[in-house]
Amino acid sequence: MSEEVFSQRTTTCGALTKADNGKTVVLNGWVHRDRNHGALHFINLRDRYGITQVVVDDDASEELQAVAKELHLEYCISVTGVVRVRPDSMVNPEMSTGEIEVKAEKIEILSKCAPLPFQIDDGKETREDLRLKYRYLDLRSQGMQKRLKLRHDFILSCRKYLASRDFYEIETPTMIKSTPEGARDFLVPSRIYPGKFYALPQSPQLFKQILMVGGMDKYFQIARCYRDEDARGDRQLEFTQLDLEMSFVKRDDVLSLMEELFGHVFKEVMDYELPVHFRRLSYTEALNTYGCDKPDLRFDLPLTDLNELAQKSSFATFGEIVANGGFVKAVVAPKTEGVDFSRKYITELEDAAKIYGAAGLAWIKVGADKALSGGVSKFFAGLEDELLSRVGANEGDMILFVAHQNWKKCCASLSAVRSKLGKDLNLIRKSFEFCWIIDFPLFEYNESEGHWEAAHHMFSMPQVEYLDTLESDPGSVKGDLYDLVLNGYEVASGSIRIHDVELQKRIFRICNFDDETAEERFGFLLNAFRFSPPPHGGIAPGVDRMVMIMSEQTSIHEVIAFPKNTAAVSPMDDSPSEVDQQQLDDLHLIINYPKPKE
Questions:
Q1: pLDDT tens digits, one per residue of 73-97
Q2: Other C-beta atoms within 10 Å of 432: how many?
Q3: What is the pTM of this model?
């Protein structure tokens, strides 16, 4: 390695054009490709901004030739040279710097690279565990760098827009009182107060409401949140959300702000035009029409209720289920070139439905002149016109049915079939399809524990018409709740909040928190509500999930610099890890290891 101090770069590897012809420049970066043609040497030099081709000509000095021969992939080097225009036949249109190259006059090796565990940007898939173990190498890839730039651009655009709308960015604590919010808290033991713990926030929910009591009016934060739950592709133990809260607003104010915000962000960051307003579906309508409360609207295939027609058919199974208060729904698989609705494929669809509780999947194929064949077609003899009209099926299509006593399971099972059809039949449009889901149930019944609990969280306002029947009929209460869905993912959840102490206590009691427990857990919020809180509401889009969708990925691992794997482990730094006994003693902790199974 050269003993002298390396030359400071004068430009980056993505900036040079033919307008720079003849300039002497200094580039710093990593050896991306290295091609040695004897005396002629080509080096593709890479940094965050792009790639520039460096050439060591055959008339270069022996010293320069020797350094060039010493180079290997991912060596970190400094190149001093002269920009020259490539001949027309050598222009590379795939590179932003493809019209030029740099004739090297000097190369300094800044640091050497050990043998690589995988090749960076070689076009081959690398196992995720290897990518995460050597994340510092994976971060050098163009894909990761583009996605992290998109994440930066997304957050910056959100910040600028919200600042222009008079929002204050305010940080809330990362060590707080443990309060139940649905998932397990991560706990931080206190050294100073033995036996007492802080919790890492699952969200800034209570603090942002208290900020409204404090008169902050409009707040936002790029908030780090923590939930001790099982990881999966679009979830992490630690995640980031764009947290917002506003005073003196109703639901439409929050929804309109988010439509304006994302319209601005998508235009600025992706040059993509969103509609001025997003489609709105009630929770019931979403389940009835698409089978779930986070529908992918990039393709059609609505579900159809067939209770009445099922009773007219001679299929006893359908008739019995409907007679006993159950449900029959159908979806149409459209005729698709190159796709054979074989018995094997129908079994695959049936397996997808069974995951969500369906006992089976009935089917009918539609032939010429409205002829029905296969599956349960014989039970609809004489009802062909009515069935085809009801579900909107045509020649070559296949009608798929699910029947179940439970409405949610019937919807969810057929939704799984719909999703599989969308992917398998290539029906999904390349677009960004937002929609709002509104009018959620405020409560859901916990069968295993035998009590009601909040469907979202306990601080959401019931819709006004249900205030008198909260205790007598919790199951029918709708909340002033709203979710934002994008391409089949829930990307934000929010509500108008309760701002009345007595109403908040009523909700706590319905959710099995008596007054004493509520005061113990949430006394600081209740106390704040005794001092003239304003009506307020908010929402919290997930940054990781939004950027994942915008970058057309299926895992948030691809848009987080240092994620945990699906086993909640960081292979790079081997966390979680054991700590020494002195640290445990300082915190007054004793590890009670699980006993081995006999």
A1: 999 999 999 999 999 999 999 999 9
A2: 18
A3: 0.93
